[in-house]
Amino acid sequence: MTTYDAKDPDTRFLPIRDVRPPKGAPNVLVILIDDVGYGAASVFGGPCHTPNFEKLAAGGLKYTRFHTTALCSPTRQALLTGRNHHSVGMGGITEIATGAPGYSSVLPNNKAPLAMTLKLNGYSTAQFGKCHEVPVWQTSPAGPFNAWPTGGGGFEYFYGFIGGENNQWDPALYEGTTAIEPPKTPAEGYHLTEDLTDKAINWARQQKALMADKPFFMYFAPGATHAPHHVPKEWIDKYKGKFAHGWDKQREITFRKQKELGVIAANAVLTPRHKEIPAWEEMDPKLKPALEREMEVYAAFMEHTDYHVGRLIDALGPVIDDTLIYLIVGDNGASAEGTIQGAFNEMANFNGMAALETPEFMMSKLDEFGGEHSYGHYAVGWAWAMNSPYQWTKQVASHWGGTRNGIVVHWPNGIKEKGGTRNQFSHVIDLAPTVLEAAGIPQPTVVNGVMQSPYEGTSMLYSFNDAQAAERHETQYFEMFCNRGIYHKGWSAVTKHRTPWVMLGQKTAAFDDDVWELYDGSKDWTQAKDLSKDNADKLHELQRLWLIEAVKYNVLPLDDRGVERFDAALSGRPTLVRGNSQMLFSGMGRLSENSVVNIKNKSFSVTADLEVAAGGAEGVIIAQGGRFGGWSLYARGGKAKFVYNVLGIKAFDIEATKPIPAGKTQVRMEFAYDGGGMAKGGTVTLYCDGKEVGNGRVEQTQPLIFSADETTDIGYESGTSVSPDYTAHGSRFNGKINWVQIDLGKDAADADHFIDHEERVRVVMARQ
What we know:
Strand order of the largest sheet: 7-6-5-4-8-1-9-10-2-11
Radius of gyration: 27 Å
Shape: globular
Number of helices: 18
Helix content: 10-25%
């Protein structure tokens, strides 16, 4: 009834009420560690000391047969949606998306993320750390942002980075969708994992202080322990000399420990080393100290991560009993993307220049591994050891070494047993339905007016208080880069199509000629005894089942193409930058490499329209890349200067002989590429207002990529600096930049022919 006067007794309105989930709905904390094999962390028998993980497990449950997709982006999208990775368009990483529905990297609107469902049902939501689910053409500061965590992702707050990896000492960060700089420098003690933890603790405290009755959903996904492996030296020193026995012996040590802990079956068999992986004894003795240091750094990085996860859990002490914690120790198996010998600067391998990192070079950098001047990764052999006792590594979805990750579940108010072990088969798609069942929230049928497809995972809640419960997730397909497998009621059939670290010259079989293996999981915990020849009928049954599942979840068509996957035009995905010219403006920054025209292996020019004060010009005009490779046009001492930095190993400087004139002026740099292939040199000429003021040579260039995380900035340089002539914090141009234009030379159309298609494949595959 409508009344005229609010004081009228007939005036009645229902009170405004905030949405809240059902009574008893717990807080939820999902912790996802990056690139960790089953046999890495001590909580599952590995050599990396993780006391906080162990403490959490002592108060909860360890799941020993939990699985991921074998790769970063697919696992994360599956986790966040409760659907298989091909169902949500993430059959690979975003950088190799195609027009096929299972591989588009575009999340369908009928598969809303878990965070969105929780938010709409009264949860506070926040994400901290890595987000590698944004389509690559939407990762620039221009958006669109519907695939970002605070866009369509369902998170009210985001603090972290977009992409596959990041410099832990000097990261490219976003708060929401706004690029920001780290609050401290490495010299002041900055490290990304610590920063993310601080932000997560502060957010949780504020949320509970202001809305104590409202539960939260926090997704904490630090870049640790993905390459580059960065950690303070005092943590590395703890592991000095502890890996001198090598990776073969380490697997044996871990295997024994795993049996003692009961995280593998008592009758499990340690799988042998494949011929593609060199024995420790086969490695160059001159290189072994560097190989040891690589593993020391990784172990330290893992323990450092455990420490900060412990800080976060301790901070939740007042609400810990009512918090469901999922600690997922790895989004895939350990990474074998670091080459047979590992790397001090993995950008060398990405550019086909790994030969620059000789044993002598590696030894000269021994004390710098893990520090801010490194960008390292460990050797394939260490990745294999960290996946003990299983075969293969990250990317190999056919075998448990790529997909089996240990997890810890902790929820005092919901789990009676402390320190228990659960052996039921489970998968990352099971997390979302588990959380909803724990919260008493039904799986969504309509979200924002769109009818939803059902979750494809199975809630794990049934096993929380029943160790002997029959497993309910009975069937699960696997596929990554055409390495594929199927699990069904204890049996698994698998076929490996390609080897992750063999980037060049790998000849893969036709799909129908791939050799399948068969394993009986009821008797064979580690896929050690192939029964394909003894039980052909069972193998054929599982092969047919794989095809049924593949059709159901958009896995087909299988795609092992090379160059076509990496060419946007051929693969059917959009590109952000088109044409041979691009104008940029002062203040633009944190532009990813795919956001700027590609100047590699070709001639190019940079023209800057400036206004210079009478005191002279100083600071960066434009810079791309950073300490580990890139170029910069800047003013120093009033003069224009151009620097080309090759992998942080070589630098070529060209400086003007005359100062930049005061007032309105134009500075121009022209680079005439020598041609004749990739990574060649060229001649640099500097101009002021059309008059030549300097020239010189760049004898070598980077052919494929400057950085996985460094960016392009106008009027300053973020992150690490290309040149030691300035620091990022003192790099800002002191005049006015009206615009900067990059123009490619006439040879731009021919430059792509320099790059062998296998090189393109190798680079993108190594960046996951």
